[in-house]
Amino acid sequence: MKGIFSPGRVAVIGVSAKPENLGRNIMLNLIDFGFDGVAYPVGPNGGAITTRRIYKSLADIPDAIDLAVIFVPARFVPQVMEDCGQKGIKRAIIETAGFSEYNDEGKNIEDQVVAIAEKYGIRFIGPNCIGVINMENGFCVPFPRLTPFIRKGEVSIISQSGGVGLSIMNHMAAEGIGLNKFASVGNMLNISAEDLLEYYIEDEGTRTIFIYLEGIRDGRRLMDLAKRSPKPILVMKSNIGELGQSVAASHTASLSSDDRVVDTAFRQSGITRVHDVTTLSHYMKTLLLPALNNKRLAIISRSGGHAIVAADACETVGFELAEFPESFIRDIEKHFRASVIKLTNPLDLGDLFDLDVYYNIVEQTLAQENVDGVAFLHTSVARTERGPTRDLIARLDALSRKFNKPVAVYVSANSAEISGLRQELDFPIFTHIVEMFRALKLDYDHSQAMADVVLEEESPAPIVDKADVQQLIENAAAENRDLLLNEAMDVLECYRIPTVRGLAASSAEEAGSAADSLGYPVAMKVISEHISHKSDAGGVQLNLRDRDGVIAAFHDMNTRIRTAFPDAKLDGVMVQPMAIGGRELILGGRQDNQFGPVILVGMGGIFVEIFEQASMRIGPVSRKDAMAMIEELNGAQILMGARGQKRFDIDAIADAIVHLSQLLTDFPQIRELDVNPLRIFHEGNGCLALDARIIL
Amino acid sequence: MKGIFSPGRVAVIGVSAKPENLGRNIMLNLIDFGFDGVAYPVGPNGGAITTRRIYKSLADIPDAIDLAVIFVPARFVPQVMEDCGQKGIKRAIIETAGFSEYNDEGKNIEDQVVAIAEKYGIRFIGPNCIGVINMENGFCVPFPRLTPFIRKGEVSIISQSGGVGLSIMNHMAAEGIGLNKFASVGNMLNISAEDLLEYYIEDEGTRTIFIYLEGIRDGRRLMDLAKRSPKPILVMKSNIGELGQSVAASHTASLSSDDRVVDTAFRQSGITRVHDVTTLSHYMKTLLLPALNNKRLAIISRSGGHAIVAADACETVGFELAEFPESFIRDIEKHFRASVIKLTNPLDLGDLFDLDVYYNIVEQTLAQENVDGVAFLHTSVARTERGPTRDLIARLDALSRKFNKPVAVYVSANSAEISGLRQELDFPIFTHIVEMFRALKLDYDHSQAMADVVLEEESPAPIVDKADVQQLIENAAAENRDLLLNEAMDVLECYRIPTVRGLAASSAEEAGSAADSLGYPVAMKVISEHISHKSDAGGVQLNLRDRDGVIAAFHDMNTRIRTAFPDAKLDGVMVQPMAIGGRELILGGRQDNQFGPVILVGMGGIFVEIFEQASMRIGPVSRKDAMAMIEELNGAQILMGARGQKRFDIDAIADAIVHLSQLLTDFPQIRELDVNPLRIFHEGNGCLALDARIIL
Question: CB 3.0-4.6 Å disulfide test: which of A255, B241, B505, B615 passes with B629?
C-alpha cells in the first residue's frame, strides 16, 4: 500500500495542454503540493505543460514508472491498464467515472479492468474517485484544482465520496486540524476501504483515522481491524435511511445495511460513529491530545461567565471537578495580587492579566495527582496579546505532552484572530465550550472503550450436539423448506436452550394421548412449514384442560386452517404443557450480509409494545456481552427485581443468549431465528423456549 | 426603553486621557461604530481625548443629557447617580463591578444606588455589565475595546454575562449572522432581562431574540412575554448543575432553579432552549428564513455524495422529500444536456455547470405546491465561480422571500471563500449539511409550537369548595404545622379529587368501630404532623381483616412509633377500606420560586423505579395539557391499554391533574403536595387518592 501513497515516479494519464483539461489539474496539484518524486504527463495529443513534455503514450516514457494516475474516458481505461501492465506498472489510481455506478456498459468495462489488473498483478484505487493526497511527500492527485489549503498533520482519511471528502478537509482546515493522508476510494474494485484502514493503522504518520462510508463492504474485516487498532477510528456512515439509499444506489455501488446493526458493530469494535461534521472536527481535535484517563478535570478560566458554562458542561457530560488541596490553593494564591476572588475549581483568573502566570498555574495544576486534565478558557484576546497568546498556547502544548494529560484550550476571539492562531499553531484550539467538553468526553470514552475491546473475554464454546443440528438442517434444506416447529425446538435443545418439552402428534387421538402423558393443562400448536405466523392462522390453542378439549381443539384447528389456507401442508401439531408464571422475553438472531450473525434480545409480553428497543450484538456473543445485553434492556429493572420484587433467572437468560449466538455462528445457513416467547422464571428456576421459528 | 438604546446626548463618566483607561474605550467604541448622537466624556482629571474636551464633572456639560454611561469605581457610583439625578438624566448604564456579587459593602452601595434611582426616576442597566450595543445607530458602549466586528442584522441579544455575550457575537460574526441590539444586564437592579425582552418583542429592528441567562428572575413574566411573542426566542440558560452554581453565586446574583422546571416552562411558552453555541448559530440562521410550514422538502445538490448525506439528514429529522410530478421533471430535464442522471428528489445537478440554470431550477421547484422549502447544496466552488456564486445566493434570497418558503443554502468551499461570501451577503450560509436540516427542523417546530402556544385553551375552573380548604389551611398555619393526613384528604375531596373515604380514630376501640363500619379488609395509617414518611416509621398497616386485627395493629403501631419517635405528637389513625385492583400513579405539585405552581404526574408502584421520568407542567394546567402529560409518560401505553389490555380511566386522571393544578394556583401557601399513590381503575371506574401529604 505504501506504493499508492509514496511512489517515486508517477505517470499522469489523460493530460492535455488545454486549460479546461482536468488531467492538467492533477499535474498542477502535484507541483503546488511539492511532490517529492517525478511526474510524467501523458496524453495522446502531446504538447507541453509547465515546461514539461506531455508524452503521447506510456511507452514513450524512458524511465520505469511506479504508479499511474488514470483520468481518461471510461471506454479507454482497459487499454490504458493493458499499457500499464505492459510497462510493468504495479499501482494505479483510476479517477474516471462512468462504470457500474452509471450503466450496464460501464459494468462491462469494469469487469475488463478487473481482469487486466489481475493478469498483471496491478493494485488500484477507484474508479469513480478523486484519488489520493499524502501531505508527507506532496503526492496530491485529485482532479479538482487544489492549492495547498490544509496543514500537514496526523489525521488520515478514507472517503467513499470525493465531494464529501473535500468538504471535510475544508472544515478541518478551517478548524486548524492537519491532514496526513487522504484517499477517495470510489467503486473499490480492487483496493477497499478496509485495505486502506489496515494500512493507516500501521502507518507511522497517522494518529487518528477518519472514514466516510456510504456502504460497508466487509463488515467483519472492518470490525476485526478496528478491534486491533490502537489508533482511534472515527466513522461517518451515511446512506442510513430510505431517502438516502435511493440516491446511493445510483451514486456508488453501495450495499445498504441495517443501521442499527452498523451502530452495534461499531460500538463493539471501538469505532466512534459521528453523524455530523461539527462533532467530527471536535473529536478530531480532542483525539490529538493525550488520552484522558479519568474524570477529574480542572477548569481555569479568564472569565467568570465562561467558567459557569464550562462547569455546567463538565457536569453534563459526567466529569468531576478535581478538588484542590489547601496547600495547592495557598501556592497559587501567591500569584494573585489583591486576592479578591475565592480560589476554587473552576479557577477564575479574574484580575490576573499576566500570561506567564497563567502558564505557571496550569503547570502547577497538571502536577496535581488528582487532576486528569485541564480545560483552559482564554477569552477576549486584546490585539496586543496576540503574540503572548500564541506563545502561551504553544507552551501549553508542551506542558500537555510533558504531563501526558490533555490540556484543552478554548479561545474566544474574533474569527480573524482565531484563524491566525490556528495557522501559527499545531495544537487544537476549541472555540465552543460545550463542544469542547463533549469532545473531552469522547476522548475519555475512547480510552475506556479501547480497554474494554482489548479485555473482551472469549467464552468457552458451550458443549452442544452440533451433528444433530447439522442433520436437521440438511434434511430441511434437502426438502427446500424451513425447519418445522418440532425441529426448531429440537435444535434449541441441542444447543442447551431449554424448551417446554412437547410431543408431536399427527392425529386427534395422538394429540389426546400426548396430552394425557404430559398432564393438563396443555397448549397445542400447528406444525406446518407453510404457516409461520401460527397465532394469526388460528394455529395456537392454549389452556386445554382435558383429553376431550384436546381432541375438540385438534379438529377445530384443522378446520380453521384448512379454510384459511387450503394449500398449506399440515405436519401435525405440537402438544406442550402450559408454562405457568414467569415473564416473557423475545430472543432472536439473523445473518447480516455485512456483519454475519446478529443476536437480539427484547422484552416480551405486554412490555414488547412499551419497550420497543431490543439489545443487539454481532456474534459471537461472550457471556459478559450477554449480561450487558440484558442490563441494557429498557425494563431490565423488572428482571433484576425492582422494588423488592423477586429477581428473575438472569444466568439462564445469559446462557440462552450465548448458546443462540453459538448456534448462529456454527450454522450460517440459519438465516433467521426467533424464540418467542422465551419464558423466564425467578432466580434458580431457569427459562423455557415456548415457541421457535428457524428460517434457512 | 428606547431611551437606553437610542439616546441623543450621552455622557460617558469615568474617562481619562490615559491609554489604559477603560472609560476611554467606551468613547472610542462610540466613534468607531459611528454613533449618530453626541457623546460627552467626563472624568475628574479633565484633559482631552480624540480632540474632545473631557469634562471634569457632569455639571460642566452645557447641554441636557439623555443617558449616562457610568464606569467609575463602585464607591463613587452613588454620588455619580446623585449628580445624574440633579442634571435631570433619566437613563443610565452602570458598567462598574464590585457590588452585591462581590461583598456586603458592595450590597450596601447597591442599595444606595437603587434608592437614588428611585428618588429621581432613573431607569438603569447594570451594574456589573458591559452595557449596550445598538447596530442601528452605532450606540456601542461596552468597556472592552471593540472595532466594528459584526454586521448589522436582525438578531437582538440579552446577556447576563458580558464575556459570554461577546463570545457569542464573535461566533455570529464568523457565521455571518447580523446583530441588531445587544444588552449585557449584569445584576439587573433596575432594568431586568424581562424588561428588555418586552422591548425587543416590540422593537422593529429585531426579528429573532437570543437571551443568555445564568438565573431566572421572574419566570412567570418571562413565560407570559414569550407566549405573546410573535418573534422566535432562543435561550441559553447555564448554571444548571451544582458545579456551575457554586461559581454563579459569586459571579452574579443568580437564583438557581430546578433545571427541569426551566425546561418545562420554556417548552410551554414556546421558548427554544439551546445548550451550545453551534446549535445556537444554526438556529439563528434558519429563523431568519421564512417559516417552514410543512415537512415536504426538495434537495438540490451539485454533488451526489452531499445529496446522500442530505437525504439521510432529511429523513433523520423527520422531513419528507416532496414528490416531483412527471410534468415538472420533464420541464427541468430540458436544462440537462445528456440526461445521464435520473432526475428525482434529491436532485443531483451532476454535469450541469451553469449557475443561471441552478437558479431557474430552484425557482421552478419553489413554484411546486407540494414543496415547502428547498435545501440547496453548492459544492467545490472554483475560484472563477466566486462572483457568480455570490450573485446566485443573493438571487436565491430574493426567491425565498418571493415564494415565502425557506431556501437553505449550504456551501462547501475553503474557509476564506466562505468568509468572503458571508461578508458580501446578508443571507445565512450553512456549511454543515446535517446541522442545516436540524436547523430547518427547528424552524418547522417553532412555527408549530407558536401555533400551539397561541391556541392553548383555558379550561373552565372546576367547581370546588375553596372556603373549606381556606379554613383547613388557616387552622394548620395558626398552629404552625403542615396539614394532617385526614385534613389533606379533605382538601383533595374539596377539589373533587376522589379519595378512599377513611375515618379518623383516636383510640384502638374507635379504630375498630371505624373498620366495622367501613367493612373489611382495611388499611390503617398514623395521623401525625411529625411523621411525614409514614411507611418508614411503621405508621402504615395494610390488609387488616377483622376488628381484633385492627385493635392489635393500633397498639402495635403505637408502640413502634413511640419507640422510634418518642417526641412525636400522635393525632390518631386513619382507617381506610383497602382499595383492590387498578394501578398506581403518583401525582404531585409544588411552588417554584421563579415559576409558581408546578404539577407532576408519574407512574407509581413497581413502575416508579423503571420509569423514573415524570411529566411536568407549570400551572395552571388545562385539560388538554393534562392529557398531554399522561400521553408523555413513559409507560403511557400501559394506561392506554397496550396489547388488547383494558384501558384505564384516563379522564379521571386528567381531572385529578387539572383540579390539583387549580388547588396549587388558588393556594400558593401550599408549598408541596403529594398524592402517592393515586390508584386508578379501568375506564369508567375513576381513581382514588390513597394517601396525601400537604406541606405549607
Answer: B615
